[in-house]
Amino acid sequence: MTRDFEQFPDNDNGDILWQMQEDGSDLTEPHEVEYSIAFEKQDQAEKCAIYLLLEEQKISMYLDEETDPNFWILSVHINMELDYADINDLEEWFTKIAHQFGGEYDGWGCMTYVYDDEDEDLE
């Protein structure tokens, strides 16, 4: 299949989405996407968490002991189809919110599941 650069632009998000599609992930099916914001201080993360809860977002928060024990990570979990424009819009929103509360937007990720017809036959 030839890459459609309008649907999958030549940048990090476009590359990730293109690779996911090439690997067999159905981007039109909802995925739980996790957007992360990093904070140096717990109180900054907590204030941002309250703001996001008031915006009706599903969140989790933890101290990043594995990578850097000085950072608090606030994750926002959104069930959505994997659409390039929607991901970029949310990244812009989370970047703005991160700066508003003294944090830094740290990217997104999600699990992918590839099912083939043979898996269904085994059940």
UniProtKB/TrEMBL annotation:
Regulator of ribonuclease activity B domain segment(s): 11-110
Pfam families reported for this sequence: RraB
Origin superkingdom: Bacteria
UniProt-listed InterPro entries: RraB-like_sf, RraB_dom
This protein's name: Regulator of ribonuclease activity B domain-containing protein
